[in-house]
Amino acid sequence: MSGSASGFVLVADIGGTHARFALVGEDGEAVNPVVLRCADYDGPAPAIKAYLSDQGAGAAPRRGAFAVASVIDGDRIELTNSPWRFSISETQRAVGLERLEVVNDFTAVALSVRHLKPEHLLTIGGGAAQAGLPIAVLGPGTGLGVSALIPGESGRWTALATEGGHVTMAAASEREARILDRLRTQFDHVSAERVLSGQGLVNLYQAVAALSGHQAVFSTPDVITKRGLDGSCPISREAVETFFAMMGTVAGNLALSLGAKGGVFIAGGILPRMADAFRASSFRTRFEAHGRFQPYLAAIPTWLITHPLPAFVGLAGLIRPKADHRTLA
């Protein structure tokens, strides 16, 4: 990197599998984004040092804003689906930051949604968003992230840090009930994340295979998705279709719980890669399928976020001098 980067802010989106880093300037744009595998480093500090060393001698940011796939409760961070365990304060000292803010990863995504451009949103049904009303955010990746934006006084918004991905998954059909019953033989608690995540898709595939009297021959979400979408494997196809439908159930439940008439935004690392299939799926029908409240949900718009790094957009807003929002853990 040419010139001094001390005026830049180091941003990081640390998930269960990958850690993404970039530098953000005063214009809020992320530059030099890099994706590193968490398994290749002992923790965030070595990964950050490796990233900054590649940016040149001038890369010495004084401030940082990180999004992590974890509950934020004190100084210690234990990622939900990763072996990384670290201290916020020790990491700050190790990489020479004067200030470091850490938020839940889906809190950062929630902070992004009011700043995303139309070309980074795929509309999937519903009416028009109502201004100044709650906004729901969720999405499957390594886990299932859930957050929300709640309007407050003077135009300020509060982003909620939640663990909504761990709510109990409910069946909406006899077939889904049998699938969940099968998964209960494997897990004490079948949460939404047990079926709506990368591993969740594998869990669905294995359950469908068992119920259909077939052997589960695939073990990765990428292969199951490919074989399901191209129609070459009926078991994979049912798993993917069930995944889409259950996303609709969970998103509808969240919209009802929040009164999210400001809309529902869906993010995560899985669905943008199969956006067309998701849009054509039963997701929206299941989103609205809540009995007497079908008309209520039919009016709420749902969008798929297609921006490759929405958390960076949110983190840039978090550190903006006159930010119009705050976070609430």
Automatic annotation (TrEMBL):
Residues involved in ATP binding: 12-17
Family, as annotated: Belongs to the bacterial glucokinase family.
Catalytic activity: D-glucose + ATP = D-glucose 6-phosphate + ADP + H(+)
SUPFAM superfamilies in the cross-refs: Actin-like ATPase domain
NCBIfam families: glk, PRK12408.1
Principal subcellular localization: cytoplasm
Keywords, comma-separated and alphabetical: ATP-binding, Cytoplasm, Glycolysis, Kinase, Nucleotide-binding, Transferase
Gene giving rise to this polypeptide: glk
GO MF: ATP binding; D-glucose binding; glucokinase activity
UniProt superkingdom: Bacteria
Protein name from the UniProt record: Glucokinase
Subcellular location(s) per record: Cytoplasm
InterPro entries linked: ATPase_NBD, Bacterial_glucokinase, Glucokinase
Pfam families found in the cross-reference section: Glucokinase (PF02685)
Gene3D superfamilies, A to Z: 3.30.420.40, 3.40.367.20
GO process annotations (BP): glycolytic process
EC number(s) given by UniProt: 2.7.1.2
A GO term from the CC aspect: cytosol
EC class of the enzyme, as a word: transferase
